[in-house]
Amino acid sequence: MTRYIIKRILILIPVLICITIMLFAITKIMPGDPVRAMLPTTLKSEQYELAYKAMSEKMGMNKSLPEQYFRWLGNMLTGELGFSTMYKRPVADVIAEPITNTVILNIGVIIIQLLISIPVGIYCAVKRRGWFDNFWQVFSLVTWSMPSFFLGLCLIFVFAVHLRWLPLGGMPNSALFSGWAYVGQWLRYLILPTITLSLISIASSIRIIRNAMIDALNQDYIRTARAKGLREKVVIYSHAFRNALIPVSTVVVGTVFSLFAGSTITETIFAWNGIGKVLISAVTGRDVMMICSMNTFFSLISVLAVLVSDIVYGLIDPRVRLS
After folding, report:
1. Which has the higher per-residue pLDDT, 282 or 323?
2. Burial readout 89-106 (b: 16 or more C-beta within 10 A, e: otherwise)
């Protein structure tokens, strides 16, 4: 198993290096000068040129592109993500609170997704072509094909505008509430974005788990288990579900790593101060270091998710390690 893990890590290292090179190149061809964006426009011509030269040297912009790349990569590895030209603060300080808000939002989404999608997907596979399976197939098809911004706006119109049960969006104000009242406000603001993300994630998860279980239930060893007189629950959960764990583990690992990825469109629709909303603001504000750092972070999360999925595959099915 150790050899298998080392092999997977060695395969993913060049992938991550290629991603960083592409992201660095994209930031360099983007219009605008990050050094000029950091300087005040009230300086006189001579002072401005001196300040520009000093800032360029400080940021390493006066060096060659390979030197800039390796300096940027070294800073990223040490946790130095650069300086945000839009917020006038280090990138690490800017994203600290949004990442926390994104994690809080996605924890509820993951819990709802796993609690609903796994049992529903299994039951749909066992009772396929029945009314329960048909309902969830139609439901998942509709919600999966529905854009998240449209679903979010529909929920806002019904529950916030028409019924006025929940807030339109935004974040709870800590200056107005404290203690359990503040927790209650957090829950009220969390409901609509959580429902939006949960409906979309549940739709895809149910279909993946259902198809994996149907494939497992059609195997010969399931017929053998039933012919031996084993109870149906034992056949489903001890035999079929265990052999359908590879696609199920993909869903679980993906949802866990989505804790930090955020949802750009949903967070923007609900004005949720998460990492996705910050990235949209950085793109519109041409904050080069913020864009580069955030995309590198997302790439690292994706690569780690792939690595963990490969390790889980090897633990579930030894044939994966031998292939």
Report:
1. 282
2. eebeebbeebbebbeebb
| Two tokens, residue 245 | 């764990």
- C-alpha neighbours within 13 Å on the C-beta side of residue 275: 25
Reported as a single tens digit per residue, the pLDDT across 40-60 is: 767 777 777 787 788 777 777
**Greatest pairwise CA separation for the chain in angstroms:** 90
What phi and psi values does residue 249 have, to the nearest 5 degrees?
Answer: -65, -30
Looking at residue 26, its pLDDT comes to 79
Q: Are 60 and 68 in contact (CB under 8 A)?
A: yes
Predicted confidence at residue 181, as pLDDT, reads 78
Secondary structure letter of residue 168 according to DSSP: S
86 Cβ neighbours under 8 A, 6+ residues apart: 37, 281, 282, 285, 286, 287, 290
> Do residues 85 and 283 make contact, with C-beta atoms less than 8 angstroms apart?
no
Give this prediction's pTM.
0.76
Q: Which fold has domain 94-322?
A: MetI-like fold (1.10.3720)
Q: What DSSP state is assigned to residue 134? A: H
Q: Domain ranges for the chain, please list them.
A: 35-80, 94-322
Enter the tokens of residue 284.
């519109």
